[in-house]
Design goal:
mainly beta; five-stranded antiparallel β-sheet; 11% helix
Length: 409
């Protein structure tokens, strides 16, 4: 696919795919509409998250700056789109901790219609120095900046049980380090994972800082589960709240070999599946782990069938019970972004379509976020980088588009 640029603040319409799909006796137009939320620019725009307000307004947040953790001008930006509107409102600063990078916004709308923002404040320009913050607002749908009603850090103190689980995985990690076929670089990566676990076992501050959000918060039987990860350990964890965000505690760690940035899905039987980016050695697959106790403890993270080139992905449960995946459907590179659908809770993925595609080295489409709106449409946002210019792209599409002819398998 070829991409055509537009200038100024005008949203660009990249493609409109139309076909006819049959659903029962009804004929449904298969539609995909994609646009940039703002004109591409040289500044770094990354890691978006999209939510829907009770009135159908969409809010997208991302971080913007001259870099990431090492750039102290990085702040969170956002934009709204009203129901029926054909354009996004001018972007605004969602939050800026002056003098510190703000990264990885994760948004959640609670049962009262309030907006929650979870994000990482980088204290010393390293991911390991992250302080996890939470903010809430009941006044977030009007034009202009959000007025926050409260804000405080999410303080987590992984204890002895956490360390026991970590140490229990060390023999398997040592075995992975000696696995035949690994390159010297891959062996070095595994050594760094092991070193991170040793450091966490001896340094209490290291265990308590560095936890970052990425994907949406998920609920199970009234419990809030905020998926987190730590780039020092290259493992994941879930912050659990049984009082709707007033207090938090850590789950047991999710341990594999380089499993980070979890996205959570809940099966019909109440068990939870975590899907994680693969930062480890081959095969490059989205890693998965399971919990049978509402996120308290987890199985070992293992490879799934879904390719992953070391980039963020999201898997969510739809109202129909189907599951939807969005991510880079490659083992190497971020030049293809796809949507898959499963009718059997992630065991198989019968429907697969690509949202964005370019030649390797000619474009990057990454860190997606996705939701199913109240009207049944899907909305996805992601980071787009082409020719040294970056923006956040939004796509609106329906189930018929995913299921229509010409599927990408």
């Amino acid at each position: 696919m070829r991409f055509q640029r537009a200038s100024g603040w005008v949203c660009w319409w990249v493609w409109l795919v139309a076909a006819l799909a049959v659903s029962g006796s009804d004929r449904v137009t298969s539609t995909l509409i994609s646009e940039a939320i703002f004109a591409p620019e040289a500044r770094h725009n990354h890691a978006s998250c999209v939510v829907e307000a009770p009135d159908g307004t969409l809010l997208v947040a991302w971080f913007n700056g001259s870099g990431e953790r090492q750039a102290d001008d990085v702040k969170l930006q956002a934009s709204r789109r009203r129901p029926g509107s054909r354009s996004w409102e001018p972007r605004f600063t969602l939050w800026d901790t002056a003098g510190f990078p703000d990264c990885n916004p994760s948004l959640h709308v609670d049962a009262q219609g309030r907006l929650w923002l979870f994000h990482a404040v980088i204290l010393a320009n390293t991911w390991e120095s992250t302080l996890l913050q939470a903010r809430v607002s009941a006044r977030w749908r009007t034009r202009g900046p959000v007025r926050w009603d409260g804000m405080e850090p999410v303080l987590l103190a992984p204890g002895e049980e956490f360390l026991k689980v970590l140490n229990g995985h060390l023999p398997r990690l040592q075995q992975e380090h000696s696995r035949p076929g690994l390159t010297s670089r891959q062996r070095q990566e595994v050594s760094e994972f092991i070193e991170g676990i040793h450091l966490g076992a001896t340094n209490r501050l290291y265990r308590r800082l560095g936890w970052m959000p990425r994907a949406h918060l998920t609920t199970v039987a009234g419990r809030w589960m905020l998926p987190l990860y730590h780039d020092g350990y290259s493992i994941s964890m879930v912050a659990l709240s049984d009082d709707q965000g007033r207090s938090w505690r850590p789950s047991a760690p999710l341990v594999g070999v380089g499993n980070v940035q979890p996205s959570l899905t809940v099966r019909r039987d109440g068990s939870v599946v975590a899907w994680m980016r693969d930062n480890g050695p081959p095969p490059q697959r989205l890693l998965r782990a399971e919990s049978r106790d509402r996120g308290e403890t987890w199985t070992t993270a293992v490879d799934s069938e879904i390719p992953n080139p070391g980039s963020g992905a999201e898997v969510r449960v739809l109202r129909s019970g189907e599951w939807i995946f969005i991510g880079n459907d490659l083992e190497n590179g971020r030049h293809s972004l796809a949507v898959w659908m499963s009718g059997d809770e992630g065991e198989t993925w019968a429907f697969r379509r690509r949202l964005a595609e370019a030649q390797a080295g000619q474009g990057s489409f990454s860190y997606p976020s996705i939701l199913e709106a109240r009207d049944g449409w899907f909305h996805a946002t992601w980071s787009e980088a082409i020719g040294g210019q970056e923006t956040i792209r939004h796509a609106r599409f329906n189930r018929a588009w995913i299921r229509s002819a010409g599927l990408d398998h």
